[in-house]
Amino acid sequence: xxxxxxxxxxxxxxxxxxxxxxxxxxxxxxxxxxxxxxxxxxxxxxxxxxxxxxxxxxxxxxxxxxxxxxxxxxxxxxxxxxxxxxxxxxxxxxxxxxxxxxxxxxxxxxxxxxxxxxxxxxxxxxxxxxxxxxxxxxxxxxxxxxxxxxxxxxxxxxxxxxxxxxxxxxxxxxxxxxxxxxxxxxxxxxxxxxxxxxxxxxxxxxxxxxxxxxxxxxxxxxxxxxxxxxxxxxxxxxxxxxxxxxxxxxxxxxxxxxxxxxxxxxxxxxxxxxxxxxxxxxxxxxxxxxxxxxxxxxxxxxxxxxxxxxxxxxxxxxxxxxxxxxxxxxxxxxxxxxxxxxxxxxxxxxxxxxxxxxxxxxxxxxxxxxxxxxxxxxxxxxxxxxxxxxxxxxxxxxxxxxxxxxxxxxxxxxxxxxxxxxxxxxxxxxxxxxxxxxxxxxxxxxxxxxxxxxxxxxxxxxxxxxxxxxxxxxxxxxxxxxxxxxxxxxxxxxxxxxxxxxxxxxxxxxxxxxxxxxxxxxxxxxxxxxxxxxxxxxxxxxxxxxxxxxxxxxxxxxxxxxxxxxxxxxxxxxxxxxxxxx
Length: 582
Ligand SMILES: *Cc1c(COP(=O)(O)O)cnc(C)c1O
What we know:
Strand order of the largest sheet: 5-6-7-2-1-8-9-12-13
Distance between the termini: 33 Å
Number of domains: 2
CATH topology of the largest domain: Rossmann fold
Helix content: 25-40%
Radius of gyration: 24 Å
CATH architecture of the largest domain: 3-Layer(aba) Sandwich
CATH superfamily of the largest domain: Glycogen Phosphorylase B
CATH class of the largest domain: Alpha Beta
Number of helices: 22
Bound molecules: pyridoxal-5'-phosphate
Strand content: 15-25%
Number of strands: 19
């Protein structure tokens, strides 16, 4: 498994030889002094993507939150995830070449949530009652606030009153809910700045309960971690002072905290990132590249440093169950889903027969999922083991370049047709994104105009966890081509690597944690060079699947380099190491 120069290209965990110590720690050694079931790790997120528990998110931020909780549960970490429960969720359907967004009501009682009680938040115009609901797992739970008119995720614009109301409800309402169930946070982990008000609620509680204001600030800062997923601070929406007078200030008991917060306004405007930076001493970015390039400044004007803690996925959730068991049986990962110390030595035992067998199982899973998911021509797809599938599955966002592979239709067709290959696109257009909606329509009509593509390129609407899972398990090669510098981490590609897909990718986000020799890299000096390389890589991936040696080599190289990166247990370990340094 050596590369040409004899170097292992894998990404070593910083303390991979210390995993035994870590297990001891998780087995209630030193961590229990800091985290206990009464003082848990608290994780705040405006978005959770966990359909099994009735909460559907919008994308990667919510998927990460769900994976983080599940991994914590598997590792027996006392952990509470606090998030809104949105009484309706959004779906997107394609009918007659037109995209429709529709809202579906959801009832938390159908998903095992128990109603606990109510909490109140204040606005200048009055009180708002929020229902507190809870779902418990092994050592973790989801604690939610909700009310019938809470609205859906990301409703209205990001600087709107309704968003502020939702964010204040999560922060102040969620903090009150935590107290209601008798818990104090050991750590406040803010998954992006929409959760800022949780840390503010804590600061206000400390400062209004007699702690010296500056001590309260220091204390809150030391126990708050802000995870940033965005690249450019300026892109973030602002709130006005009068919006804060309506929704935020009425919830503050401490005059000193009010004054502190008021001072953070510049020209009567505030960005939540600037105050979040002030209230959180611990700050992380979601990949090595992102942590390095995220361009944020504190109020004094200094550049903010982010600790790189690359996102991971809950392997158990995203992998074909028998493949996950196989990883454990051959000793690639341990019981927590952490790569074993000698996982590189175990890799040679994976052979092409095993890869193909699991791909066949994955294809069956994909077929059963596709039974309910017609393509743009209203056809139900069913693939044979020998069919070749490329997939592009991710939000239909401009920087992810969903239409790039369709720039040269003839060339694309010349790649797909000789092999009879299919190309599946799954990805939602952000509601209201007219630009991308038009790009999708243009793409679909391009496909319509060609006899081969019409029957071999499939668009699946309402992209969700189920499709993400099915395509990771069931396709041969996945395509991830964000404009370099714009993907903070991305986790779809992690699901592909785990499930023995060949990854074609630009060197961006978490992919760039490893070297460009780890996967089929796409690069170039401009977009046309990148496109040319993308087509070459697509051809290459088809021939790799035809040669057992190449297939083994490619899949094992991906795993060697990426397994420690994609492991959600590794991510949790990194968070714990950062929060509780030894
Ligand atoms: C994994 C997943 C994502 C994450 O997508 P990235 O573009 O890789 O960040 C988004 N949506 C769904 C439904 C997913 O399953």
